[in-house]
Each structure stands twice: as C-alpha cells, then as structure tokens.
Amino acid sequence: MLCVRACSGLIRTAMRVRTLHSFPGITVAQIDEEVSKLLQLKAQIGGDDGKHQFVLKTAKGTRDYNPKQMAIREKVFNTILGCFKRHGAETIDTPVFELKETLTGKYGEDSKLIYDLKDQGGELLSLRYDLTVPFARYLAMNKITNIKRYHIAKVYRRDNPAMTRGRYREFYQCDFDIAGQYDAMIPDAECLKIVYEILSELDIGDFRIKVNDRRILDGMFAVCGVPDDKFRTICSTVDKLDKMPWEEVRKEMVSEKGLSEEAADQIGEYVSLQGETPNSQTSVICCQ
Questions:
Q1: Every domain of the chain and the residues it spans
Q2: What is the rounded distance in angstroms from the CA atom of residue 284 to the CA atom of residue 212?
Q3: Where in the numbering of this chain does the Aminoacyl-transfer RNA synthetases class-II family profile domain appear (predicted)?
Q4: Domain at 60-206: CATH code
Q5: What DSSP assignment string belongs to 178-200?
Q6: Structure confidence at residue 45 (pLDDT)
C-alpha cells in the first residue's frame, strides 16, 4: 500500500513509485497518471507555502452596496424615518445578537433559520432573526407598558437565498410597533395610514395594501378540516405561497406535514381567491 502523507512529499513519492512497475496489474503509465492528478490537486490548494487560494467575494446571501445604491437607500430611509416621527414614535436599539434561549421557540419551524454563534464566554448566543422578539424582551426587561416605537436595523436568517428575487441572509427591517392598551382598531388604522403615507411619498406608482388576520386563517383551516395540532405547521407552509407555486406548497402539506389531500385541496380553493371589497380599493387576504 502506498501512503502519501503530505503534499510536500509528492515529488519524492513520484520517483519511488516507478519501482512498483514489477507489481502485477500496475503499470508505470497508471502510476504517472495518478501522480499527475495529485500534483494538479497540490497546485490548486496553493502549493508548498501552505496558503490556500481563494476567491474574493461576499458571503452567500449577502451583497455590497455602491455609493449610488447607498444614496437611494438613504433617501428611502429618511422618508420612512420622517413618517415614523410624524406619528410620534420613538426609536430604540438592541444588540445584533441575543441569548439563544430568548429566540428559541419563538418562530415555530423557522427557528431552524436562526444563526447560532460559537460559545465565547459561557453564553449561548444567536443573531437576531427579526426585530420583534428583541422588542418584546426590551419591554419585559424595562417593565414598559405603553410605547410607540420604530426600529430600523439588520436581521439575519440562515435561509436559502434567492438574490435575483431580493431574498438575502442579511437584510434590513423597518419596524413600527404600538404596544399597550388603546381603543380597538385605532393602532391598526394608524399602521395602515403610515404604510400609505410612506409608499405615496416614495412615489413608486400604484400600490395595493393587503391586510391579514390570523383568526381568518385559523377559521379557514378549521373549515377545511385541518387538525388543531397542525394549524401552525400548515400555516408555515401556506406562508411560502409568495415564494413557491401552489403545487409545491400542496406537496409539502401532504407529503411532509401529513395533511389529507382533501383538506389541502380545500385550502387551495381559498388561497386562490382574489378580489376587492365593494367600496374599497384595499384587498383583504387571509394569509401573507
């Protein structure tokens, strides 16, 4: 048996293996061919200096932004910030990473998309997945009961990126939240007004605001015969409709989630419905 222990010994090995031509079934040509392959591999990994060759690029799911793109982003952010402030919101900031136990179990199946960090000081940490859970932790820690807050910052998701469709592993979220006790529907109406004002000021053309309500989705699942213990997992699959065609969503619900074909087909009838309320340009959909 020939044992090659290091790339630096390849040349000496090539000289020695020529003496093996007397072994039955082994020819010098075969040995030379294998040695040539090893030498090519050695060249690819950087030769004898121990330095690996690599290509300069951004990490998968991330990108750089040039000055022109940053100028556009700055203008958009200023528009959003101006609207948030007009509505009396205050801003906060939270760490880019949280205790892992703070984030665990908050996102259902999407918890697998959380980036875990290597333990460096006795604490298990993870990069924030969104800005909502850190906000809830902030409220609980500081015993805050009423606040109107905005937060614009990067979040991280260990997802399969689709760069051409704007899906990244590192991206900004612009959050506006109203926490506390208020008259029914007043905060909801204000959030809709904020979205309308921002999109109008950005002058992106015609747009449609879609409103969802998890209670409608739960009611649809109940009518379709989805078992109570599968509501959340089926909801997670339905949420993928903006990324996947219905055929793939149906296959996941039936093959992976164990939902009956009849229930899946009924869900398909509901999620395919589109339309407008008689006296409004605002569409109401049951999932997002």
A1: 7-49, 60-206, 208-288
A2: 7
A3: 61-250
A4: 3.30.930.10
A5: EES--STTHHHHHHHHHHHHHHH
A6: 67
Q: What is the pLDDT of residue 241?
A: 86
DSSP per-residue letters across 268-286: HHHHT-----TT-S-EE-S
Look-up of token digits 């880019």:
96
Q: What is the dihedral of CA 116, 117, 123, 124, to 10 degrees?
A: 20
Confidence of residue 25 (pLDDT cuts 50, 70, 90): low
For residue 70, the tally of other CB atoms under 10 A from its CB is: 11
- Of the listed ranges 9-13, 33-37, 242-246, the one predicted with least confidence: 9-13
Residue 57 φ then ψ, to 5°:
-160, 165
Q: What is the dihedral of CA 160, 161, 166, 170, to 10 degrees?
A: 110
Structure tokens at 259: 């939902």
